[in-house]
Amino acid sequence: MEWIAPVSTALGAVIGVGATLLADRLRWRRERADRALETRRQLYAEYSAALSRIRSALNEAANDASLSGEERKRRVRELFLAPGAYELRHQLAILAPEDIVNASGAAFRLLRDTRDRILEGADAASPAYARLEDAYDAAIADLRRTMRRDLGVPDRIAE
């Protein structure tokens, strides 16, 4: 009968330590998931902004009649690389789910195609340029929907 008190004490200590360890583990997982979500949120915002800057720069180049020949090609290539979208795509490939990677690649490829048409001499009034702009609008809308879904942002905010 004298062994009941020490066994009860030991059992209580094991339960207490186990509960503390379990609570710490759950808190660590939750904090890790929160950090991962915040990292993706920041990366998605940076990538979207980079794509927007590229599109604006390409549009500006497509409307600029003063640029010609090699100067135009150099300027368009420079504008395309400046926002850092290539680097951000590599980060997306590591951190984002596959559907985000696919949608981001589709939007990026359309901007690259737009760049190539401008390098070939297309301007903002050309039908090929207009088709690429429309396709990009659809691709970026799809990318944003996919990003919002991954981040858990509702489609509609209750009023």
TrEMBL record:
The chain crosses the membrane at residues 6-23. It comes from the Bacteria. The keyword Transmembrane helix applies. Keywords: Membrane, Transmembrane, Transmembrane helix. This is Protein kilB. It comes from Streptomyces desertarenae.
